[in-house]
Amino acid sequence: MTSILSRRSLLKAGAAGLAASALPLGLARAQTPIVLGAVYVGPRDDFGWNQAHAVAMDILKQVPGVTVIEEEKVPETDAVAQSMESMINLDGANLVLATSFGYYNPFVVETAKKYPNVEFRHAAPLWNEATDPKNAGSYFCYLNQAHYVNGVAAGLSTTSNKIGFVAAKPIPSVLSNINSVLLGAKSVNPEATVQVIFTGEWSMPVREAEAANALIDAGCDVITCHVDGPKVVIETAETRGVKSCGHNASQAPLAPKGFITGAEYKWETIYKIYADALAAGQPLPNFIAGGYHNDMLRNSDFGAGASPEGVKAAEAAIEGLKAGKPIYVGPLKDNAGNVVIESSMDNYAPVLDGMNYLLEGVQGSIT
Amino acid sequence: MTAVVSPPAMRSFSLGPKSARVVEALVIPIGALVASALLFSVFLIALGKSPATFFSLIWTGGFGSSFSIQNTLQRSAPLILTGLAFAIPARIGLTLIGAEGALVLGGFTAAAVAIPLVTGGIAPFLTLPIMALSAMLVGATWIGFAGWLRHYRGVNETISSLLLSYIAVAIMNFFVEGLLRDPASANKPSTMPIGDAYRVGSMPGTSVHWGLAAGLLLAVVLWILMTRTTFGFAARMTGGNVRAAKAQGLPVGFLVVACCAIAGACAGLAGFYEVAAVHGQANASLVAGYGFTGILVAFLARQNPLSVVPVAIMFGALAASGGLIQRRMGMPDATVLVLQGIIFVVLLVSETFYGRIPFLQAKTTGDRT
Predict the structure, then answer these.
(1) Which of A72, A76, A78 has the CB atom closest to B326's CB atom?
(2) Measured between CB atoms, does A283 come within 8 Å of chain B?
(3) 3-class DSSP string for A167-183
(4) Is residue B350 part of a domain?
(5) What are the boundaries of each domain within chain A?
(6) Which of B186, B274, B324 sits opposite A86 (nearest CB)?
(7) Per the count of CB atoms within 10 A, which of A278, A315, B196, B294 is most buried?
(8) In a domain, B135, yes or no
């Protein structure tokens, strides 16, 4: 893994050629000072979604000419509009990064209309070219690719062939991660199955712990999750002596014995593209989406829970994803027996964004 | 209640009973705020941060510019309404903490009744009042039910209203994630957006929505109701002594349910503005904790509907400057919560000073009840 990471950092940040001029830390001093306002929905040290963004901001803070101002625990209400306006009016922010899903509509859209000279970018694929302001935009990474890698590593690190998945809500992005773990595991271990429990909430630590315990009691010996803060799930797995795969940020420190790897965003690739464009006085791209092929994801460094074969297969899977190898290889059935994917899908096929099924091999129900 | 008429002042220094009470009601809370600020300064110094910077940032973020003032007012709008929702039942002796549920359910109802009206092309000037009224009606029923349980079934209203809040949120989630979900809201389940034409706009010349005006109006109306009408007198008398009120033949059950219904209507109206002025649809964002902050607001305002307004504005200012403090001082979000907590505790302690500070007392035997 380390070798891949260093090789990748040698490649510089390269997102579909947009960042051809990006030099990670040696960025030329900005012409106009960039004041980047970042808004987070939770604490910056949540071992999850917010931490993933905050870590990327820390990298940007070292870029000359860029000032990063941050506000955490801003709810998805009018409060976020007020916070963004406050950053603009009182701190002179000229780029606002709104990092939580529910910030976009109406808050980012309306604030962008109100401040046409400030750029707004939001971390979910919601920007609509036809209806939304031109100074707004979206950025997003298809984390399911990294969950696929989790699945590959887990598939060769499990002995019971049962992987447990603690999921928040049965919405497309979560379902895609669950299905990708299954497909990753099955690609190396045809016996592997995934058992899922939905908690119904993005952050409900008590229920997450209960779900993790229930999955372990049911015989799962690898636990992974898609909830806002994976801390409780990973810690529960470690305490119970089973292995775990992470989500959003690195939870490796929480599970020194059982951690296999984790699906992580690499937001700094995108943030550098923004900082570079601003520094050069160029327009910011309105829509950036990516995955492994354009260096927007990574898997956490392998932990003690990963078997040597698992590490090898996962590294190969990463190379495959970079080359565009499809995850959804048809025909695939859902777990009720209906064919849901006829033929192989590109990893960025728009139809996958509307996923509303669990594949055959996943035990669980979305209703 | 009626004050004993004071004899002609023998010394120019003595306070009349009425003015003494007003002075006391001002001096004690302000003293408590100053004491809280001092205590919090100690906390800041212990963290190596400058209290002067902190309080000047509160001023900048809360009131320092026209933007800041609007930011503060925008944030205080729902707090006035939820503050009233706690204050009114408190006057009749009830501790109702369920405004959150009434707000959520009211907002959800407003969004739900809007769906057929908006699709049917009914004009906004008809649709919006229908939305507001149904939000208030549902809120009133919800909290009114807690009052009914209290009076007729002897169920503790604090517990029942809190539990009803959870049920309210669950009901909204059930419909928003199921029957009434807008198919376009794939990853954040929401009801159908009501559309820009049906949104409640801002008050002229500001970016503050009309919920603020509604809050101010209701605060005045409810103050008059509670202090200048027989209903209010009867309610306060019930709050003072239920058995005495019953012995007097007051309709205690009606008063309890009515006060709760008024409270629920206030919270429901706050929910309506959240939907019609802020979100444009109902979703999990309605569960923002305004109902619970309203409890603090009402406590600080000592359950006086008029005082709810400045206290809500103070909380709005704290919230508005909280972000600035995070950004400029690098302090965590919880900093402002620590200040709020200190204020709350000091204010509770300060309650014990009423009637005990000699120079604030009238020289007559005017009693305070």
Answers:
(1) A72
(2) no
(3) ECCCCHHHHHHHHHHHH
(4) no
(5) 2-142+265-294, 144-262+312-363
(6) B324
(7) B294
(8) yes
Three-state SS letters, B42-77: HHHHHCCCCHHHHHHHHHHHHCCCHHHHHHHHHHHH
Is A90–B74 a contact, with Cβ atoms under 8 angstroms apart?
no
User: What is the percent of chain A where pLDDT is above 90?
Assistant: 66
What superfamily would CATH give domain A2-142+265-294?
Answer: Response regulator (3.40.50.2300)
- With bands split at pLDDT 50, 70 and 90, how would you rate the model's confidence at A229? confident
Tell me which of 3.40.50.1110, 3.40.50.2000, 3.40.50.2300, 3.30.70.100 is the CATH number of domain A144-262+312-363: 3.40.50.2300
Establish whether this prediction's ipTM goes over 0.85: no
pLDDT in tens, B22-68: 888 888 888 998 999 999 999 999 989 999 999 999 999 999 999 99
**Per-residue pLDDT at A162 exceeds 80:** yes
Does A345 touch chain B if contact means CB atoms closer than 8 Å?
no
Least reliable range by pLDDT among A78-87, A262-271, B8-17 = B8-17
| Residue B41 belongs to a domain | no
Which of A122-126, A224-228, B4-8, B171-175 is the least confident region?
B4-8
Contact between chains at B320 and A90 (C-beta distance less than 8 A): no
* pLDDT score recorded for residue B9: 45
Question: A-B interface: how many C-beta pairs under 8 angstroms?
Answer: 81
> Chain B residues with CB inside 8 Å of A79's CB?
75, 288, 319
Per-residue DSSP letters for B79-140? Answer: HHHHHHHHHHHHHTT-----HHHHHHHHHHHHHHHHHHHHHTT--HHHHHHHHHHHHHHHHH
How far does A349 lie from chain B, in Å, by closest CA? 16
Q: In a mutagenesis test of the A interface, which of B285, B292, B321, B340 is the best target, namely the one with the most A β-carbons within 10 Å?
A: B285
- CB contact A204 to B (< 8 Å): no
Region of B284 (left: φ > 0; alpha: ψ -120 to 50; beta: rest) is: alpha
How many domains is chain B partitioned into structurally? 1
Closest CB to B186 among A73, A102, A172: A172
B220 in any annotated domain = yes
CB B186 to CB A102 under 8 A?
no
H-helix or E-strand containing A195?
strand A193-198
What is the span of the domain harbouring residue B315? 50-330
Peptide bond into B51 cis (omega under 30): no
Cβ atoms A56, A121 nearer than 8 A:
no
- A82 contact residues in B (CB cutoff 8 A): 71, 74-75, 320, 323
Residue from the list B173, B278, B327 with its beta carbon closest to the beta carbon of A78: B278
Contacts B283 to A, Cβ<8 Å: 102
Contacts of B332 in chain A (CB under 8 A): 43, 72
Res. B1: pLDDT tops 70: no
Q: Mutating which of A50, A77, A87, A101 best tests the B interface, going by the most B Cβ atoms within 10 A?
A: A77
